Write a sequence for this structure.
């Protein structure tokens, strides 16, 4: 494994750890400490999603044009680390809004150039493994972050100050990413005589465009995982048990990410993604039909396997569909388009939940997954994805 792949995996671990330390307590901090209304909270977090999507495209294009992927990745992680640490000092809603936007700019800035660095550094025949390795460590951090927060909440005295202490710690942990990038990540020097990548839409054609369309169809039925938590509560799972289930889901995701990535190197990206989408459809049918608490635990395990067989592998497939000089831009379009699609996906899910039934949104998600499965089966992408 290339040193960059190893390092960027641990960068993702500490970044995910810091991010997921604060996510479970943000809504409580907003309402109980800052006194924000639900509408204000929705405005802040909704704006964050939009900002992240915009900057994913901009940073991808910029990284291809400037050939400074390491620098842009560093800047993204720097913004996130600073904003998370400073969150412990805020006393006014506008400060929360500003810092969450800064964190969103950081998250949007780092993703595309980081993915391009992984693709550039992956050894021949190890693209799937490399992205699987990164997803494994990223997810492991996301599993341990909430558990660390839960432990700190038990240790610290009740009151607003304990949330602020968690923000300080999360910011410090996020700052470890900066040391790793600065010291251990290297960027291959490219020929300056080559034409620099321009900001255009020339990538949006052929196999890449078709894959993007398939992913958008799938994402239309892939609403926020918050609905899974609501479904768990709906079936009767206790509030205390939900973080444990969430950690279990992330652990299965982490365990299967590398084997799934390695398998895609051997049999092709498309075949593994097909398996992942079938697992997703079965998981959503499980959420729709679940009547007892133990069934939710089992379905969450399957859901973790879906993530392992699709997240990193989709990025490995993108690397095969575009030239290296355009990968930053391609990952920008890929990541941003999926982020933008979450808004209609969540609106559809919420409407179906409220006006039809909680199960109906899961049936819709399963149907979108099967539609994507059928489209990719009859596409030419499998030939491209083969090792």
């Amino acid at each position: 494994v290339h040193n960059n792949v190893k390092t960027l995996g641990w960068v993702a671990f500490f970044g995910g750890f810091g991010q997921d330390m604060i996510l479970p307590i943000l809504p409580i901090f907003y309402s109980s400490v800052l006194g924000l209304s639900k509408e204000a909270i929705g405005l802040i977090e909704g704006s964050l999603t939009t900002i992240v999507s915009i900057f994913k495209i901009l940073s991808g294009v910029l990284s291809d044009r400037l050939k400074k992927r390491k620098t842009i990745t560093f800047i993204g992680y720097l913004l996130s680390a600073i904003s998370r640490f400073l969150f412990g000092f805020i006393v006014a809603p506008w400060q929360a809004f500003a810092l969450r936007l800064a964190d969103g700019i950081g998250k949007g800035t780092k993703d595309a150039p980081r993915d391009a660095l992984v693709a550039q550094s992956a050894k021949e025949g190890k693209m799937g493994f490399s992205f699987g390795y990164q997803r494994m460590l990223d997810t492991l951090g996301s599993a341990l972050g909430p558990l660390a927060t839960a432990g700190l909440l038990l240790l610290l005295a009740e009151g607003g100050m304990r949330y602020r202490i968690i923000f300080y710690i999360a910011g410090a942990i996020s700052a470890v990413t900066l040391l790793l990038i600065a010291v251990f990540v290297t960027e291959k020097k490219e020929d300056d005589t080559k034409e620099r990548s321009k900001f255009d839409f020339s990538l949006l054609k052929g196999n890449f465009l078709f894959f993007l369309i398939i992913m958008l169809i799938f994402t239309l039925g892939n609403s926020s995982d918050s609905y899974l938590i609501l479904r768990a509560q709906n079936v009767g799972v206790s509030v205390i048990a939900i973080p444990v289930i969430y950690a279990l889901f992330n652990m299965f995701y982490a365990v299967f990410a590398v084997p799934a990535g390695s398998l895609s190197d051997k049999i092709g990206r498309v075949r593994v993604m097909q398996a992942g989408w079938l697992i997703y459809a079965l998981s959503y049918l499980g959420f729709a039909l679940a009547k007892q608490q133990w069934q939710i635990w089992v379905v969450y395990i399957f859901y973790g396997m879906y993530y392992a067989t699709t997240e990193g592998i989709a990025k490995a497939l993108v690397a095969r569909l575009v030239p290296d000089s355009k990968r930053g831009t391609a990952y920008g379009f890929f990541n941003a388009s999926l982020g933008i699609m979450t808004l209609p996906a969540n609106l559809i899910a919420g409407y179906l939940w409220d006006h039809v039934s909680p199960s109906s949104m899961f049936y819709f998600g399963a149907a979108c997954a099967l539609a994507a499965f059928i489209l990719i089966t009859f596409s030419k992408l499998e030939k491209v994805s083969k090792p």
The mean pLDDT is 86. Residues 305 and 351 are 28 Å apart (CA to CA). The two ends are 17 Å apart (CA to CA).
